């Protein structure tokens, strides 16, 4: 599928303004209750992979909490979709690069629902530069705070609650952690850090009964792409270099996050699962 040229000046992008809209649900999905009565927290749950995962987890019986920066329209739609799936939903607007905000999110999620079973560290940002010499150090710091420091800020206060439920953490990495990108050196560096964080954390918490895995997506049609992730003129061919010859849709990745969080993946920890359309590693 060719995507029309489009660009949003702000980051994060707004899913409601994208053409075409990303797909977040399979119309023929038949829930199995794999997350029944569980509580799942998703960062960046307002749109893209985060929204699709929130809907997928809700359909499997989970109560949903999610964070977003300030995309109120997208957040309202995600809340409505979760509630249409028959589940409770709460959301938090703020910067996950702020440790105090992350601690508040964990505390208030448990206060609202009474427990925490799944943490999906999904949110990310990127600021492409054609030349490494043009790298903006303020964007560098923001990218590291959002993409990797936030995972530390959320995970530490979440551990005592995840231990009580023998829960799971799923982190969002990227194929760029493995193959790199000359225009996304800082972003790729954070994704490499997430791979190492996932593997090391899994060893650190295994005796607590907590599993930790990651997913490494390839090109996926999300608001990230139209708010700086891709140049407008490149959008019609976005994802064309994958083996499947196209970009992925959030709905095609969401079941993987749900499975890794559920007890169906009880023997998987410290792993990075590729979802790249065949283009790149892992």
Q: How do the strands and helices of this protein lay out in sequence?
A:
Elements: E1 39-43, H1 48-59, E2 63-68, H2 72-84, E3 89-93, H3 99-113, E4 118-121, H4 137-165, E5 168-172, H5 176-179, H6 185-205, E6 211-217, H7 223-229, H8 250-261, E7 272-275
Parallel strand pairs: 1-2, 1-4, 2-3, 4-5, 5-6, 6-7
Describe this structure as you would to a colleague.
The protein is built from 8 helices and 7 strands, in the order βαβαβαβαβααβααβ. The chain is an alpha/beta fold. The protein has one domain: 3-Layer(aba) Sandwich (Rossmann fold). A 7-stranded parallel beta sheet has the order 3-2-1-4-5-6-7, with helices on both faces. Strand 2, helix 2 and strand 3 form a beta-alpha-beta unit. Helix 1 packs across helix 8 and helix 4 packs parallel to helix 6. The longest helix is centred in the middle third of the chain and has 29 residues.
Keywords:
alpha/beta, Rossmann fold, 282 residues
Write a concise synopsis of the structure shown.
This protein has 282 residues and is α/β, with parallel strands linked by helices. Helix content is 40%, strand content 13%. It has one domain (29-275): NAD(P)-binding Rossmann-like Domain (Rossmann fold), CATH 3.40.50.720.
Shape: globular
What is the tally of helical segments?
A: 8
Structural class: alpha/beta
Q: CATH superfamily membership, which one?
A: NAD(P)-binding Rossmann-like Domain
First-to-last CA distance: 24 Å
CATH fold node name:
Rossmann fold
Uncertain segments: none
Which H/E pattern describes the elements? EHEHEHEHEHHEHHE
* Integer-rounded radius of gyration: 17 Å
Largest beta sheet: strand ordering: 3-2-1-4-5-6-7
- What is the number of beta strands? 7
């Amino acid at each position: 599928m060719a995507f029309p040229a489009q660009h949003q000046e702000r980051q994060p992008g707004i899913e409601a303004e994208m053409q075409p809209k990303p797909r977040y649900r399979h119309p023929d999905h038949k829930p199995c209750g794999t997350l029944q009565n569980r509580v799942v927290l998703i960062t960046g749950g307002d749109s893209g992979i985060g929204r699709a995962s929130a809907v997928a987890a809700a359909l499997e019986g989970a109560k949903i909490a999610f964070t977003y920066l300030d995309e109120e329209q997208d957040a309202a739609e995600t809340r409505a979709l979760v509630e249409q799936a028959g589940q409770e939903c709460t959301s938090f607007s703020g910067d996950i690069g702020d440790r105090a905000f992350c601690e508040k999110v964990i505390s208030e999620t448990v206060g609202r629902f009474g427990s925490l079973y799944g943490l999906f560290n999904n949110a990310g940002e990127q600021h492409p530069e054609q030349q490494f010499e043009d790298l903006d150090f303020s964007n560098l710091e923001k990218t590291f705070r959002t993409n990797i420091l936030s995972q530390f800020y959320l995970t530490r206060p979440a551990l005592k609650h995840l231990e009580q439920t023998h829960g799971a953490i799923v982190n969002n990495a990227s194929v760029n952690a493995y193959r790199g990108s000359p225009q996304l050196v800082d972003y790729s560096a954070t994704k490499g850090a997430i791979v190492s964080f996932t593997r090391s954390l899994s060893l650190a918490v295994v005796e607590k009964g907590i599993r930790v895995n990651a997913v490494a997506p390839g090109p996926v049609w999300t608001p990230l792409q139209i708010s700086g992730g891709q140049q407008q003129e490149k959008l019609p061919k976005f994802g064309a270099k994958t083996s499947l010859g196209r970009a992925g849709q959030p709905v095609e990745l969401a079941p993987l996050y749900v499975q890794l969080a559920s007890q169906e993946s009880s023997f998987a920890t410290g792993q990075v699962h590729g979802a790249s359309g065949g283009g790149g590693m892992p």
